Amino acid sequence: MTISVIGVGYLGAVHAASMAELGHRVIGLDVDPQRIASLQAGRAPFHEPGLPELLRTGVDTGRLRFTTDYADLAEADVHFLGLGTPQRPDGPGADLRFLHAAVDSLVDVLAARGGAPTLVVGKSTVPAGTAREIAARLSAINGVRLVWNPEFLREGLAVQDTLAPDRIVYGVQDPELDDHLVHLLDEVYRPILERGVPRLVMSFESAELVKSSANAFLATKISFINAIAEMCEVTGADVTDVARSIGMDERIGSKFLRAGVGFGGGCLPKDIRAFLASAEEHGVRSLAFLREVDAINTRRRTRVMELAWDMLGDLTGRRITVLGAAFKPDSDDVRDSPALDIAGRLVAAGARVTVTDPAALGNAAAKLGEDVVEPDTARALHGAELVVLLTEWEEYRHLDPWTTAALVAVPRIIDGRNVLTPSDWRAAGWEVEALGRSTPADSRDVDPASRGQRATLVGSVT
Questions:
Q1: What is the pTM of this model?
Q2: CATH number attached to the domain at 2-197
Q3: What CATH number belongs to 293-458?
Q4: Is the C or the N end of the chain the one with fewer CB within 10 Å?
């Protein structure tokens, strides 16, 4: 089958390469000529494990090619829409301009097919009602129909999530009448479905809400355990003990219950804000708690600043090493990254900051400047008065506390991801703080209002 994927950013590039891996002929389109040139050369324009291999295989075998010209899509029978839906510049809602512009350009291609059966498949994360609106626009073209097929990708595991997903969701205009659309999309995913992956068929709106609801629930679970971490800090409890215990309850589960500096990236933050904005537009007040979910997430970044202040006092001129810039390991994505945000706050507070990361330093340098980043971990640690671990790369999880102590000026560390064993590090002479696990004795007496004032002074710079 010949397939097009329109929009080959993070979602679209992974989907295009994966569809070629399934044996389809795939044409990827984007308006960015530099991105297209990189992909056509078999080079991934971002860090994602497994993607470079799929790209090279697809391009080398001729099953995968890329273009900037919509006319090249005329031969495709199925068109996937993989456009980004970032946060609007004027508010929290989803910015659908790129998606609608792509549909406008695709309409001319579809009209030229003269009524040949064609399936358009939306994969973007959109507010409920968007698919029905696009379907109405496409219905004017004979033979063209729409299915909404949301993605559930995790950065760092996107190839796996595409080729071996937990489930595949189809949203159709009328679940009782659109069996032929279901069968056509089944042909695209047949190698996956034959392995027993569940496929669910539902209305457009249900499919749209599946994605929004999943992201909102995951964000809520992360913020919940971080709220518990706040309680642990003031009571002397250990959030890792609490999380481990409640995670054994099968009704709750242990995933997404590790307290730390919270979530970031290009999906969860903007998606929960867009979901809340959509709910308010529909008059649904029950999802207002997502505003506090977002606020809890941001407060954990402030808490790291408070701990740095408690451990060092005035941060001006103090040498601080930040381990991690990406919002999560196995990614170079620094969009709304807690690590990069905190690094920026430390710089704004006058600290001499060095940031290191295995993959994201190019993107970090674009935000903070070349003089702040250092690719070599040992050199980044040299002379540090405080180390702050903010992205849980395997390299940082397995640092030896004794060897690391020999590199720094003063052995102090904040474990912002709760991935270290504090007792091991304290045995090596380190002063250790970890979110939700302990609080410096003198900070228990700090007036909360003064903490908020200090946090406001350093602000957010990313």
A1: 0.89
A2: 3.40.50.720
A3: 3.40.50.720
A4: N
